[in-house]
Amino acid sequence: MNQKYQKMLVTFCVYDFILLGPLALPWVNQMALGLLSSLDVWLGGSVWPEFSPLHLVLIGLFGTLGVFWAYWRLKHLSVEIGRFEGYLRFILGSWAFVGALWSGSIVLLLVALLEFAVGVLHLNVKSEKLPQTWVS
Prior knowledge:
There is one protein chain. By secondary structure, the chain is mostly helical. Helices cover 77% and strands 0% of the residues. The protein contains five helices and no strands. It has helices at 3-24, 26-42, 53-75, 79-103, 106-123. α1 packs antiparallel against α3 (53-75) and α4 (79-103) runs antiparallel to α5 (106-123). It is globular. The two termini are 13 Å apart. 21% of the residues are buried.
């Protein structure tokens, strides 16, 4: 694995810590969601609905899984895990895109576009051990 690709993998692990960390903390996630809702309104999107306690638990679970997945990736950097992460980013981006279509959320649309771009970056690597993807 070349140093540039390794740096990119580390960068997006840190990005995941910053983005998902507040969602993993129950005493912070409601405030973080409120800030994202305000940002969405400022960008011309819609006001997000009030979240029920069950929604907040599921958001906390998602945030916790994301933070621990980022930590594990950071400790086990490899081209194979980077490729897997690229495919995962396309799946997450697809969910965010569908959510943006359903809700009219500009923030979710931006998240979807970012996830698709990050997915391409993760898949854009050459390796002798793995078959080449359409972007590498």
